[in-house]
Amino acid sequence: MFGFEVRAGDELLTSSSGLALLGLQLRRSGLSRLMDGLEAIGRPERTSGGTIAISLDMDTTVLEELYGKKEGVGCTYQKVLGYTPMLTYIGREGYILDGELRPGVQHSQKGTPGAIRRAREMSEGFVAPGTRLLWRLDGGCDSADTVAAIEERESDGYIIVHNRHRESQDLWLRIAYGRGVKSEPRPGKTVWIGETQRLCGDRGRRRCVFRVTKRTCDPTGQQFLEPKIEIRLFWTNLPESPEDIISLYADDYPRPPPSRCTRRPRSRPTSRPRSGVKGRCGHEQQEDEEGPSRAVPMTCLAADSSRIHGHRARSCSRIARTCSSSLGR
Question: How far is CA 172 from CA 197, 202, 203, 212, 231, in A?
Answer without folding.
Answer: 13, 22, 21, 8, 8
